[in-house]
Specification:
Blueprint lengths: L1 H9 L4 H10 L2 H4 L5 H14 L10 H13 L18 H7 L4 H23 L17 H32 L6 H22 L6 H29 L4 H23 L1 H4 L35 H6 L4 H9 L16 H18 L7 H8 L1 H32 L8 H48 L2 H6 L2 H22 L1 H20 L3 H45 L1 H6 L3 H50 L6 H42 L10 E2 L9 E8 L10 E8 L4 E6 L5 H9 L4 E9 L2 E4 L8 E2 H6 L6 H10 L3 H6 L7 E2 L8 H14 L4 E5 L7 H15 L4 E5 L11 E6 L2 E6 L1 H7 L1 H14 L17 H10 L24 H7 L4 H29 L7 H47 L2 H6 L2 H17 L1 H25 L4 H45 L1 H6 L3 H50 L7 H4 L1
Parallel strand pairs: 1-5, 4-10, 4-11, 6-9, 9-10
Antiparallel strand pairs: 2-3, 2-5, 7-8, 11-12
Length: 1238
């Protein structure tokens, strides 16, 4: 009886049906003297006699399946049943794969024994390498706790299952035979309990290799059980406790895999461990706490459950609800997510690739993938888990239809299906949110490292490369291209998950409609092939669009930089028309690309209808019957096909944009660089000359035939002062640039020893205070600082400013005169206390008296003992120099002291006489009788120390970027839609989308109500169904075109207004607004307006309508669900309000901090020569890292808040769906037809 009892359980019968069968042959229970064979024979005959009565509980097809399964699985059966009960498959193969067969049980017990042996072996052997576990690794991680709880509970349930089977055998048969069921449960439970607890809790104390081997074996073993059980559930419609347990072993084994491989993470690191087990800090600090982690995001310390549920974000969400978030309220990123660490990891991986393949240029794309391969694989795991859970939907629907028709496989199957639906949707929501969150985090890190790499590159870019990559194009690389590449990881996994989802869908198709699936496959392949030409056109148009955008941004940047000149000459109209012409060319490619995108979207949206046409047509001609279960399974699976097919156009568009953007950035990163290290030497000890140039030729284009300087021979000893004079264009500034290493040396040698300070001919001033410009990264020395101000004649000027030296000056020093900017440059150079001073005509912007004072105080006294090279046209100062260089046509014509040169060179005499005639009088400098400013040190200190401490009554010139506060409602959307008939196009698109939704509902309702209607022929059923479907696709085409046309018109209107505002703005606007802030508006913000907003705004409205329409349909089917759905909708609305208060502030901060990065980049591009001259590249790069992180932190918390909200809304949706399913189960049988259920 025991064997028969277990066979009945494996066949899927309920406990109630088991009692009926026992009662029908219950006489043998009283006859204890019967043999086992007699009892089994009696049971077999009773099963056959009772087959007719079982029709009341199961359909006839289900009875045959149960009897076949029961007969085939009788382990000790001596009397074989009729051969008709067995399928045509091989008995040995069936016994092997079926989870209830004896052979399967024996194989499972054997593998359990193998795992136990390996476990004992790993516990008793000694590791060849002693594993030292530091104190900080002795605690249990979140993965270990979850794995121990889950797998321990699973093993305990296995043990209970085996004990229960043994108890049933002993109670009913008075014997423990057959052994397979209870022995399997006990062995499996014992093995899984020991294995899971050992690997979860004590993995760090075990040798690494045996633990990993054991874990991999357990994972493969559970994978086999999972596959066999899933096969049985899908294709045999069988379910039992053992099958459920076998399925759960697979995620349990995956948890063990994570525990084991993450448990040895500290062994693979580079930590330095002292003898007492303490970690030596890398930076030499002994406190053990990095200052960079102060106020770090709670995500850095969050546990597994907190990360999965985004619970770590609650504190920020609460703060945003209580007050308007400011910049200081946003936590910093984790250390591993910051730009500096991402860039360092990128460089490290790049050097490894160069070592592996030294003869070839390493691939930037491959290097980025290798840097983030772990994160990519983890996000891919969540993506696969989401696909698996979403593909379970049609199977659950099919099971619900069978239950609604009265074909339950076992008692209370409906309750189990309702619970399975809730679990499936919960896992789907969790996995999808982790997938999207981790991909966006990868995109953030990639964007940060690319922005840092572009900034580093522009500081080293050669002058020949600057001809190809202008400042506007470099700005475009950061604000547009890096942004597009940062968005790509979000779509990366969709490039393969679409194919996987399609494959799963085709398997379910085949199960539902059989050979008609091949018709669907052909249509899908044809749709993808037909889209290939459209994708190529999109790639072409995207490339053209980016090129046109570069040209427009280059012209806009030039106009904005020189706006004062344009206004003085009244050239605004001409330059405005030039930019509008470039925008018109850009708009042409933009419209072409968006229209092709709309056509591609229509093509893929129509593919599901074509798939339905081909499949149902094949069913009609192949005479495949259409019933509720297979039709609705097919239609629900068709939605799984529809989702990836509809996503393919977006994926193609994103891939194309990322490919074009990545190609542009890689081309820039591979551009030639300056080699200043070959010129400048820092060691000044035992050096005879500070500057040595021997027979050198210099060329901007690195071409000897196009040399800008020829036959240069120059030796300057330490402390000498050299004047460089000559006519305009003779090469004076080029000689200083060659000494700085800016011009490539194509012939000869050049060596420069010592620290250099450089004053350019055109003043370069940063946005910030005067003090910051003078210090230029150096520490404050009050005495030296006061002397610097006095030597540069800045005392009187600073007294006139509202905040003295703490007055903020605009970009490029717009609120300073030319002389003031030059003197600030001189002060910056003097404060650096360099060895060599290169001064490029610094006195040209000051009056004669100030120039004389500067020469005496600055050049002759402050720089006494320093090596000075001064380019000047003021010959009055030349007698004070050690010797004078006379240059003509790129060559040094003469080099001698002033008097000798005046006597020997006619050209120099002509130059001096021309200056005297122009000046009108001779103004020779008297170095020994230099005038003093007459201001005491105490007065200087009072002016620049006490004055900033006074109350600030005047606003600074540079204003912080304004941003909205609080909830602005629909104001931004209304402003957008007001542009150029935007409301009209938007209304048309929304109405068409709503009509499309109604068409889909009508299509499904027609099929649901008439699929089992005998009065409706199959041909009529399919024709009406497909006609509605084709109508919906054409409606969707017009909806896409309306969105594209509306977006183009709105974008054209917005750009026109933006351009008018920029050219009509007063100069005070440009004085107080950094250039990067304006360029951020005309580059990245405008790109988002062009490409993203038209589709996003219509999509948002469409998704909202879809949600409410689905809720309405669900209400019509089961109005009882309103008792759950109405509270859930109220909770969802409150969650959204709670979310908006924080999310809007984060988005606004993200938008304003983005301009800081652009502004710093624009400043650095214009002042790259000065930055390199002062050797300040590292400091500017560090500031760039900080600005990138400042912008990345609100962006990170913004998309985290987005996932926080969607996950909670997903849980609410799961509750509503599970409640609706539970209502269908609880209500009396026959209340719902299969059509209503669908």
């Amino acid at each position: 009886m025991g064997g028969s009892w277990e066979v009945s359980a494996s066949g899927g019968c309920s406990r109630k049906r088991r009692r009926l069968r026992l009662f029908s042959c219950g006489r043998w229970i009283k006859l204890d003297y019967w043999s086992m064979g007699q009892r089994q024979f009696c049971l077999g005959r009773a099963l056959l006699r009772r087959s007719q009565r079982m029709v009341e509980f199961l359909s006839s097809g289900a009875v045959e399946n149960h009897i076949s399964a029961a007969t085939a699985a009788l382990c000790g059966l001596r009397e074989r049943g009729p051969s008709v009960l067995f399928d045509s498959e091989s008995l040995s193969f069936r016994f092997l794969i079926h989870p209830t067969s004896c052979i399967n049980h024996a194989l499972t017990i054997f593998l359990d024994i193998v795992l136990l042996v390996v476990l004992l072996f790993s516990m008793f052997i000694k590791s060849s390498k002693r594993v030292h576990v530091p104190a900080r690794f002795l605690g249990f991680s979140s993965w270990q706790i979850v794995s121990a709880i889950f797998n321990g509970a699973l093993g305990f349930v296995y043990l209970c299952f085996g004990a229960w089977n043994l108890e049933e055998e002993l109670r009913n048969t008075r014997t423990a035979l057959p052994l397979n069921w209870w022995l399997l449960g006990l062995f499996q439970g014992l093995t899984w309990l020991l294995l899971s607890l050992t690997l979860s809790i004590r993995a760090k104390q075990l040798p690494r290799q045996p633990s990993r081997v054991m874990c991999i074996l357990a994972f493969l073993f559970s994978g086999v059980l999972f596959a066999l059980s899933l096969f049985t559930v899908i294709f045999r419609n069988e379910m039992s406790v053992k099958i459920v347990l076998d399925i759960l072993t697979f995620p349990g084994a995956a948890l063990l895999l994570l525990c084991v491989f993450k448990g040895y993470k500290y062994e693979d690191g580079d930590e330095i461990i002292s003898d007492d087990g303490l970690y030596a800090p890398l930076n030499g600090d002994s406190n053990g706490i990095s200052k960079g982690n102060d106020h770090a995001t709670p995500f850095s310390k969050a546990g597994l459950l907190s990360k999965m549920s985004f619970w770590w974000l609650n504190s920020l969400m609460k703060r945003g609800r209580e007050k308007t978030l400011e910049d200081e309220d946003i936590p910093k990123l984790r250390k591993e997510d910051r730009a500096e660490n991402c860039y360092a990891m990128f460089l490290e991986q790049l050097s490894k690739q160069k070592q592996i393949e030294p003869s070839s240029q390493p691939s930037v794309l491959k290097t980025i993938i290798l840097c983030h391969r772990k994160e990519i694989l983890l996000s891919g795991f969540f993506a696969l888990l989401k696909i698996l859970t979403i593909c379970a939907g049609p199977l659950l629907l099919n099971a619900f239809i069978l239950v609604a028709e009265g074909n339950e496989s076992f008692e209370h199957e409906g309750y189990l299906l309702a619970g399975a639906l809730f679990v499936s949707k919960t896992i789907e929501s969790l996995s999808q949110r982790q997938w999207y969150f981790r991909c966006r985090l990868i995109g953030l890190k990639v964007r940060s490292l690319l922005t840092a790499a572009i900034y580093k590159k522009q500081l080293r870019l050669s002058n020949a490369a600057k001809l190809t990559h202008s400042g506007g194009e470099i700005m475009n690389y950061v604000t547009v291209d890096a942004y597009r590449i940062g968005e790509f990881p979000f779509w990366f996994h969709k490039t393969w998950t679409t194919s996987v989802q399609l494959c799963f869908s085709l398997v379910i198709f085949f199960r539902a409609v059989g050979l008609a699936t091949f018709a669907a496959l052909v249509v899908i392949l044809l749709g993808v092939i037909c889209n290939a030409p459209v994708a190529k056109l999109q790639h072409k148009f995207q490339s053209k669009l980016m090129k046109a955008q570069d040209e427009r941004l280059k012209a806009s940047s030039e106009a904005l930089v020189n706006m004062k000149v344009l206004k003085l000459y009244a050239w605004e109209t001409h330059f405005k028309k030039a930019i509008e012409k470039l925008r018109k060319e850009e708009h042409k490619w933009l419209s072409a690309m968006l229209l092709r995108r709309a056509y591609s979207t229509y093509l893929f949206w129509s593919t599901p209808v074509l798939v339905s046409t081909a499949t149902f047509g094949a069913c009609y001609f192949l005479k495949i019957p259409l019933h509720a279960n297979n039709v609705f399974t097919f239609i629900s699976t068709l939605r799984l096909v529809q989702d990836p097919i509809q996503t393919i156009p977006d994926v193609i568009a994103v891939v194309i944009q990322a490919k074009v953007a990545f190609g542009r950035i890689v081309k820039f990163l591979e551009a030639p660089e300056l080699q200043t290290s070959n010129v400048r030497k820092c060691n000044m000890k035992n050096v005879a000359n500070s500057i040595e140039i021997k027979s050198a030729n210099f060329s901007w284009e690195e071409n000897l035939s196009k040399s800008i300087l020829r036959n240069i021979n120059l030796e300057v000893r330490p402390g000498e002062k050299v004047a460089i004079c000559g006519e305009v264009g003779s090469g004076k500034s080029s000689l200083l640039a060659a000494i700085l290493g800016e011009i490539p040396n194509v012939q000869g040698n050049i060596q420069v020893y010592g620290k250099i300070a450089y004053v350019s001919q055109t003043a370069w001033i940063q946005s910030g205070t005067i003090q910051e410009n003078i210090l230029f990264g150096s520490c404050m020395d009050s005495q030296r600082y006061r002397e610097t101000l006095e030597r540069c004649s800045l005392v009187k000027d600073l007294e006139l400013l509202p905040y003295g030296d703490l007055t903020e000056i605009g970009e490029r020093g717009v609120n300073l005169s030319g002389g003031q900017k030059q003197r600030i440059q001189l002060a910056r150079a003097l404060y650096q206390d360099a060895d060599i001073y290169l001064l490029d005509d610094p006195f040209s912007a000051v009056d004669a008296h100030t120039a004389t004072n500067l020469f005496n105080e600055y050049v002759m006294e402050a720089l006494s003992g320093k090596t000075v090279l001064l380019v000047t046209h003021q010959v009055d100062f030349l007698p004070a120099f050690d010797f004078v260089l006379l240059m003509m046509d790129g060559e040094i014509l003469q080099a001698a002291p002033y008097q000798h040169l005046l006597a020997l060179s006619q050209e120099f005499q002509n130059l001096v006489n021309a200056h005297k005639e122009t000046a009108g009088s001779e103004r020779l400098s008297d170095v020994t009788s230099a005038q003093k400013s007459g201001i005491s040190s105490r007065e200087i200190k009072k002016s620049y120390v006490e004055k900033p401490l006074k109350e600030n009554k005047v606003d600074q010139l540079i204003k912080l970027e304004e941003r909205e506060t609080g909830d602005t409602g629909f104001k931004p959307y209304i402003l957008y839609l007001k542009q150029n008939k935007g409301f009209l196009y938007f209304s048309i698109a929304v109405c068409l989308h709503f009509t499309s939704i109604m068409s889909q509902i009508a299509q499904n309702s027609w099929m649901a109500t008439n699929v089992d209607n005998p009065s409706i022929s199959t041909l009529r059923l399919l024709v009406v169904y497909l006609s509605i479907g084709f109508s919906a696709t054409f409606i969707f085409l017009f909806r896409s075109l309306a969105a594209v046309v509306g977006g183009l018109e709105t974008s054209k209107s917005l750009f026109s207004q933006l351009l008018n505002s920029l050219f009509r703005a007063p100069m005070s606007f440009y004085d107080s607004t950094p250039l990067g802030r304006i360029l951020s508006r005309v580059s990245s913000d405008l790109s988002i307006t062009d490409l993203d907003i038209p589709f996003s705004i219509v999509f948002a409205c469409g998704v909202t309508m879809n949600a409410y329409c689905n809720l309405g349909v669900l209400t019509v089917v089961t109005w009882q669900v309103l008792f759950v759905s109405i509270p859930m909708v109220c909770v969802a609305i409150q969650l959204q309000k709670y979310y908006f208060s924080t999310a809007k502030a984060l988005m606004r901060i993200n938008g304003t901090t983005k301009s800081f990065v652009a502004n710093h980049l624009a400043e650095s591009v214009s002042g790259a020569i000065t930055i390199r001259a002062f050797n300040e590249e590292e400091r500017f790069s560090a500031k760039n890292f900080h600005l990138i992180d400042t912008n990345a932190s609100p962006y990170f918390h913004n998309f985290s808040a987005n996932e926080w909200l969607i996950q909670r809304l997903g849980m609410i949706s799961a509750v509503v769906l599970a409640s609706a399913a539970l209502c269908m189960v609880l209500l009396p049988h026959g209340t719902f037809t299969s059509g209503k259920l669908f």
